[in-house]
Design a protein that fits this description.
This protein is mainly α. The chain contains 17 helices and no strands. It has helices at 2-6, 22-49, 54-65, 69-94, 99-118, 123-137, 141-151, 154-182, 194-213, 238-251, 254-283, 289-316, 322-342, 348-377, 382-395, 397-411, 413-432. Helix 2 runs parallel beside helix 5 (99-118) and helix 14 (348-377) packs antiparallel against helix 15. The radius of gyration is 21 Å and the shape is globular. The termini are far apart. The relative contact order is 0.16.
């Protein structure tokens, strides 16, 4: 019974009928590539609906259950650490699994755990459900990395992946606005539990779409491998030598390790602003929670623009070397953080502008770092390398979650901003060390 259930995760076999006409191959590739790009973007955005809902619910949840910033930070940290471990572990599995099944099943389980979270009031139960949610959330990105690396050649991947990457922003903006409305009290009594029940229903609907609309690899639909992405594993038996290939392409590459360490500081800033932005704006600037949600949505919207521009700059100015663009973006993100911290104003317009600028520059390396690592690792290790960098990225929730909450409770918001500024400086230095890295790891 269990083996039959696990069979749904097996890599889809090559189609019995292989397309041979060159014109039809080109037309079919274009059609499938658009389909992969659209539905994987939609699918990953849906993961945010059952993950990024907590920040808007946090002020009301704290008030209802009497929790401190430090305790809320523990939830964020536990989620992030479990998420990072899951992404790393599931990266190995996703490189040799059916991307469609992997993604759809994970999204359904994540939605179910959100329903359990929303129905709970005990502190321990909330923590357990949110940690378990972190595990299934970690199953979302690896199959997307595998899909994109299998369906797009390296040069096209540089410009297409930033388009896919706006799934982070679309999902974040959508859930911020939805949850902002749900807690506003405009149509019904403000209730933080709605921030978990309503998004769960939407996530299940998207999971059903993914099951029916996503393919696995090009050969599974009768197409050849994408030109320029053929990878030969060392030795005769690919199963036995996959580990050797991972060591060669991923774990022995110093630039991948530098980028992974840099990801720690990128994510510390990203989630430091995203998770604590609404609370900071409410506590320090005395801005209404609905307005604060809209302002942090601006951080996400301009993050999408920053990622898209980063892909273009990488292609046109840096010859596909995404790590070089990360240096510039990270330094400017630090400048924006210091300005947001030091400026003395209550203007919502000015504060929104600074949040937008911070989002623009921090989402550059958030996206480009993945491009650099996937291209260096090649499509055969795409999900594995994403898992490796992610375990560093989400280990940063020790800073952006519990660390930020504890600092703010004990020393105020200045200490929190000081921590984020130091992260920007260290991240910039690490990215500068990757300047000599090649554009990709393919031998062709």
């Amino acid at each position: 019974m269990i083996s039959r259930l696990l069979n749904i995760f097996r890599v889809a076999p090559p189609a019995p009928v292989v397309i041979s006409d060159a014109t039809e191959i080109a037309a079919q590739f274009k059609c499938w590539q658009l389909r992969v790009l659209f539905f994987s973007t939609l699918g990953y955005a849906a993961f945010y609906f059952v993950r990024a809902n907590l920040p808007v619910a946090m002020p009301l949840l704290k008030q209802d259950l009497g929790l401190t910033n430090e305790k809320m930070g523990i939830y964020l940290t536990l989620f992030g650490v479990i998420y990072g471990i899951s992404k790393f572990f599931n990266g190995f599995l996703a490189d040799r699994a059916n991307a469609r099944a992997f993604m759809a099943v994970a999204l359904c389980f994540s939605a179910l755990l959100n329903i359990f979270f929303g129905a709970s009031s005990a502190v321990v139960a909330l923590g357990i459900f949110w940690m378990l949610n972190g595990w299934f959330q970690g199953m979302g990105f690896p199959p997307c990395a595998r899909l994109m690396a299998n369906w797009f050649p390296p040069k096209e991947f540089v410009t297409k992946f930033p388009i896919w990457n706006i799934s982070h922003n679309v999902g974040s903006i959508g859930i911020l606005l939805l949850c902002g409305f749900l807690v506003s009290g405009e149509c019904f009594a403000a209730n933080w539990r709605l921030c978990f029940f309503v998004p769960s229903v939407l996530a299940v609907a998207v999971a059903i779409l993914l099951w029916f609309m996503l393919p696995d690899t090009p050969p599974s639909v009768g197409l050849p491998e994408v030109a320029g992405t053929h990878v030969a594993l060392p030795g005769k038996d690919s199963h036995e030598n996959f580990g050797a290939f991972l060591w060669q392409q991923v774990f022995s590459n110093p630039y991948i390790w530098l980028l992974a360490f840099g990801n720690f500081f990128v994510y510390a800033i990203r989630y430091g602003v995203f998770n604590w932005g609404p609370t900071m704006l409410l506590d320090v600037r005395h801005i209404k929670i609905v307005h604060a949600a809209w302002m942090v949505a601006g951080f996400e919207a301009f993050g999408a623009a920053g990622a898209l521009l980063g892909g273009w700059l990488t292609d046109k100015l840096f010859g596909g070397r995404a790590a070089r663009a990360c240096v510039i973006y990270m330094a400017l993100a630090g400048v924006c953080l210091v300005t947001l911290w030091k400026i003395h104003t209550q203007s919502e317009l000015v504060l929104t502008g600074l949040l937008c600028a911070t989002g623009f520059f921090i989402y550059g390396p958030q996206c480009l770092l993945a491009i650099a690592c996937v291209n260096l690792a090649t499509k055969r290790a795409a999900a594995t390398v994403v898992g490796l960098t992610s375990i560093f990225g989400y280990a940063s929730t020790t800073l952006s979650g519990w660390g930020m909450g504890r600092l703010v409770d004990k020393f105020g918001w200045d200490a929190g901003f000081e921590m984020l500024t130091v992260c920007a400086v260290i991240g910039t230095i690490l990215f500068a060390l990757t300047w000599p890295a090649k554009a990709h790891g393919y031998r062709e």
